[in-house]
Amino acid sequence: MSAVATPADRAAQMPPHEIVWELSNAIVASRTLHVVAELGGADHLGDEPTSARDLATACHAAPDALDRALRLLVACGIFQRRDGAYLHTESSRLLRSDHPRSMRAFARLNGLPVICASFVEFGHSVRTGSPALELIDPKGLWHYLQDHQEEAAIFEQAMTAKAHADIAAVLDAYDFSRHRRIADIAGGHGHLITAILAHYEDASGVLFKLPAVAAEVPPPPRLDVVAGDFFTDPLPACDARRWATSVAAPWWRRTHGPARCCDRVGGAGVARGAPGRRARGVGLVVAGGGPVVGVGWIGSGARWGW
After folding, report:
1. Is the pLDDT of residue 121 over 70?
2. Are the beta carbons of 252 and 213 closer than 8 angstroms?
3. Per the CB 3.0–4.6 Å rule, which of 22, 37, 72, 244 could disulfide with 186?
4. Looking at residue 260, which CATH number applies to its domain?
5. What's the number of CA atoms in the CB half-sphere (13 Å) around residue 136?
6. CB 39 within 8 A of CB 119
7. What is the pLDDT of residues 39-59, one digit of tens each?
8. Which domain holds residue 23?
9. Is residue 165 domain-shared with residue 264, that is, in the same domain?
């Protein structure tokens, strides 16, 4: 049985100038995805082929410009084009808002002004080691989101979508049977911790979220919803904690200095060494994560002095 080719294997088969050319232009495809997701293009595409003109009317977009954008995504495996009209692929269906594993919010998140502006200033992070986000809002991402509620809503939707996508991978990768009380720090609306408790019936859990989100979560059995700010409030007592990457990174850097989380659990469907995994590490530097890498399911609290 032959091994699955990695991105590095595929790159090794490309001429050197093509590697540089493709990577230099990667922003074009990713930005196109952000825009089409923002417009809701996949939501307006059903089971029948639809012309770019009809899609543009539904999306309130310019037909020729949208057609060019969709053709680029077709080349990337998102959507398919037949006789001048567009149809779904399995990947493009994930951009529908009503898909049970929808990734539309995640695509919109990476196209938010605060994210785009931070990556424009990525050189600041590389030169200084400080988060580029501090040039956008010196008080950090959470302060920025408090002042930009529309972007905050997309951020929360993206975190919820990612939690849904990660459930199977987390349950497969980590054995929680030795833990009796598990805390999910900044765990969205609790989908992941709820799934863990359903799988481990002897455990109880805590969902620790900002008050505005905590108020929206009806606690299921064996799960306590605790409102608080992990920067200023004591963390819930437990023997295992799960951190969302975007919040773990700045907290860890502030309290522990340069270090790596232990017991990392990868996101669903992201192979070790894949560009997507490495891109997340870069994203942490831009947003304020410094050298912290990954999402940590961290076991004994005493082990880390909590």
Report:
1. yes
2. no
3. 244
4. 3.40.50
5. 26
6. no
7. 999 999 998 999 999 999 999
8. 7-98
9. yes
Q: Per DSSP, which regions of the chain are E strands?
A: 50-51, 80-82, 85-87, 181-185, 204-209, 223-227, 240-243, 297-298
Give the DSSP H/E element, type plus range, for residue 73. helix 63-75
**Contact yes or no for 91/107 (Cβ under 8 A):** no
Among 87-96, 130-139, 252-261, 270-279, top mean pLDDT goes to 87-96
User: Contact 174/265 with Cβ under 8 angstroms?
Assistant: yes
Question: Is there a domain that residue 139 lies in?
Answer: no
Residue with tokens 């192979």: 271
Kindly report, residue by residue over 293-304, the tens digit of the pLDDT: 233 333 333 333
Please give the Cα distance from 299 to 103 (Å, whole number).
Answer: 30
Cα–Cα distance for residue pair 157/154, rounded to 1 Å? 5
Domain total of the chain: 2
Q: Does residue 274 lie in a domain region? A: yes
> Amino acid identity, residue 276?
G
CA 127 to chain CA centroid, Å, is 25
